[in-house]
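Researcher: Here's my situation. A collaborator sent me these components and asked whether they could plausibly form a single complex. I don't have experimental data yet, so a predicted model of the whole assembly would be a useful starting point for our discussion.
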Amino acid sequence: MFNFDFYNPTKIFFGKNRLDVIDKQVPANAIVLITYGGGSAKRNGLIDKVKANLGKRKVYEFGGIEPNPHYETLIKAAEIVNKKNITFMLAVGGGSVIDGTKFISLASHCKGDSRDLLKYGFRLITSEMAGEVVPFGVVLTLPATGSEMNNGAVISDGHGKFPVMSDLAFPEFSILDPTLTFTLPKIQVANGVVDAFVHTGEQYITYPADAKVQDRMAEGILQTLIEIGPISVAEPENYDARANHVWSATMALNGIIAVGVPQDWATHMIGHELTALLGIDHGQTLAIVYPALLEVRREQKRAKLLQYAERVWNITKGTEDEKIDMAIRKTREFFESLGVKTHLSQYGVTADKIPVVIEQLRDHGMTALSETHDITLDVSRKILEKAM
Ligand code: NZQ
Ligand code: ZN
């Protein structure tokens, strides 16, 4: 196991009817900005309920944070934060609203050009770079990204999606009420299962580091998603299935299974380019890239792929290669069974787009990806060809 530091200050309030904690968790004298997305939270009455729980506090709203939130949108909210002297924000939504709110928090009092915050990649942004941040809480409406309990955001600008990481960007608290996710369209639920699954895989199917607790927790998350994912999609109001989906997604990317182990993230970086260029949903890009990547990287990942085959899918018969083949096939079939297609061609993408994606990866410096930094542009091209 590698040396590690672990820090996660986000308080979690899980379960039905938890909005009442807002009154205790948000400072009594706060001037609050509620942030939300394209309107689902407004239409289903959630914003009104959140406002009711804020009581007499002065409250402003900023709606219209789009999926894959854009710098240009978020910067308008940062202006409101400054104009109205906002002291606390409440993000009501999925990964895009939460990520957007993290960026608003970092950008509002940033001394230099806030666009520079997109340049640090996986380097942690400090208060010297961001200035004073605006604390915020979360009311989660979509189980997928883990953003509700981590220090990362992904922000779109032009034809790029840029990671923004900072220990100043952890939510102060997150309310995870599975019933608030009942209104999701099926495809978003399915995307969420895939996202949590691939987050876990990116931290688990790498190379052995003898991290037994992290491995078994990862295997537990994967097996839970395999068990409850299809139910979570098929039965939108099945509370138990959705509750397990929500907590799996949070646990998949809150840092706990990441400690002391190698991490891949190549599928995410290639997937981000597919979203930025072709507008494919985040979860769908992962369903396209991941099975192809596992195939292309089967030698580098051999030991962990065998462990994955045996412990997650209970594949015990056959040669090593047969076990790996079957595990990758089952992974693809699992995504497909949720209704998420796994081939680029099924999204109407033709092979002539692959060089454009490769150019984007080059422009964004994504030339040495993976846990061993040896996914070059050539390897990315092979992965995308396999994903056709
Ligand atoms: O905008 P509204 O109208 O609310 O509709 C949203 C949106 O269209 C809808 N939705 C959300 N909750 C709903 C609902 N509709 C009905 N009922 C509800 N309860 O769902 C649509 C998608 O929402 P979005 O927030 O974009 O989805 P998701 O949570 O999958 O977030 C994706 C974003 O997170 C980033 C992705 O890159 C992408 O930008 N990621 C963030 C990560 C992180 N911060 O750690 C890690 C991830 O790997 C990921 O990259
Ligand atoms: Zn993801």
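Model: Some features of this prediction you could bring to your collaborator: Residues 37-41, 67-68, 93-97, 99, 141-142, 144-147, 150, 152-154, 161, 180-181, 183-184, 188, 191, 195, 253, 268, 282 surround 5,6-dihydroxy-NADP (ligand 1) (CB under 6 Å). The domain at 186-386 is CATH 1.20.1090.10 (Dehydroquinate synthase-like, alpha domain).
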